[in-house]
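Hey, resending since the last one bounced:
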Amino acid sequence: MNLKTRLEKHRAHLDRHLARLLPPEDAEPRTLHRAMRYSVLVGGKRFRPILCLETAAALGQQTPKLRGLEDLAGALEFIHTYSLIHDDLPALDNDDLRRGQPTCHKKFGEAIALLAGDALLTLAFEILARLRLPDARRRAQIIQELATAAGTRGGMLAGQVADLEAVGRKVSAQQIEAIHRAKTGALIRACVRCGALFAGARGPTLKHLSEYGEKLGLAFQIVDDLLDVRSSSERLGKPTGLDAARHKGTYPGVHGLEESEKIAAELVEEACSALKFLGEDGHVLQALARHLLSRTT
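The structure tokens again:
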């Protein structure tokens, strides 16, 4: 099975599972549940939950064997979608489009959008708390991993604040790297680590996979920065060119386009090198990393 077919199969399966995990539209409070389902099910690459699934698979854990892995992947997508809803709000990025459709606050209003993001984050941790694992310690590790990745100590919230405070200011290469590692990279790294923890990884195995996730997360955001310059709103499903218009810190803004491409490519190769210990079992994770460099959405 080639990578494209594999990704499409993952996405179709995940979409069905996400729909099952979400509260039904006709359950009260209906408006909030409609907003949650709209934001999650309107589309998306599902890159983060797929990373989790493929990491566990590389370590010999397939979803038919451990159904709880699908729930973990769903929780990861809920945390990611919560962050997108909040990022799009007028107080932050003030975006009108996400995944090719009106953003949550444009369709349901700011108050419901804010609460929908809160509800998705809360639901994610409800799901994590009931994960079926052989021991409670492993479940606690996963919960701590994701809470840290979403939090203020080097996680998404820390990156978001740093990103806001950098608007209109000249940022250094070190500052932009720190912002990207936190705002985007922390959750991507956590997706890899959670898949590994679910599969029982520890020691050198977890260390190597953590390095893979860290390099991959930074490369992902650099490619996002490049797409904001080079792609179109129609292709991306969200407005482009806004980073420069808002005077936000980006890799192309600091390093230029060609150097940013070079850095992203080097990070991807470093990520792939971290997987050498897996041998052939790591080929899908390597393909996912290299796929980033050719993505157009």
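The two ends are 22 Å apart (CA to CA).

Sorry for the duplicate.
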